[in-house]
Amino acid sequence: MGMRHPFSCLAVIGLPLYLAGCASHDAEEQHQLYRNDMLEAKLLIASADPGNYARANDLLAHARAADQRGEVAFYEALLKIRQQAPADQALPLLERAAKAGQPYAIALLYRVYSQPMLGQDADALKAEEYRKAYAELDVAKSGYPNFERAGQIVEQLLSQQPAQ
């Protein structure tokens, strides 16, 4: 048998490492794009300017595939609420976000059933279920945002008025 080329061993070891590095770089780039899309969408929604909502919706649609924590569904629901869409368009999005563990979605669902909104009747039992669900989240266990603070943030998001 012939002598192996010294670079063949390097290629056998190096190629998989190189390819893994490329995949890792691509995944990091995709995550950064997701974060940028979400940041811009949040800012556009928080501006409370209806002229920004179409762009925010496009950004959310682009970010949807990479979302793992229900963030996109929450902001889609918030956008629907701001556009005064029917409850049957916003509530399923909030439920999906809550199932994914999105803390603000859970706080908003608590608000929906404790202080009726979106055409829902007050339902103390449902509201309490959402309060308990929030208590099980890692963010609640770490203390930030606690349930009261999450409720305040949700109220701010709901009541934000466009800049004059």
What does this structure look like?
This protein is mostly helical and 164 residues long. The chain has one domain: Serine Threonine Protein Phosphatase 5, Tetratricopeptide repeat (Alpha Horseshoe). It has eight helices and no strands. The termini are far apart.
The CATH class name reads Mainly Alpha
Cα radius of gyration in angstroms? 22 Å
Helicity range: over 70%
Which outline best applies?
globular
Examine the coordinates and then state which fold CATH places here, giving the name of the CATH topology: Serine Threonine Protein Phosphatase 5, Tetratricopeptide repeat
Q: Tell me the span between the first and last alpha carbons.
A: 82 Å
Which architecture per CATH? Answer: Alpha Horseshoe
Q: What would you call the structural class?
A: mainly alpha
Mean pLDDT figure: 84
For the largest beta-sheet, the strand count, sense and barrel status come to:
none
How many distinct beta strands?
0
- Residue stretches low in confidence (pLDDT < 50, at least 5 long) are none
Count of all domains = 1
Per DSSP, what share of the residues sits in E-state strands of 2 or more residues?
under 5%
Order of helices and strands: HHHHHHHH
Number of helical runs?
8
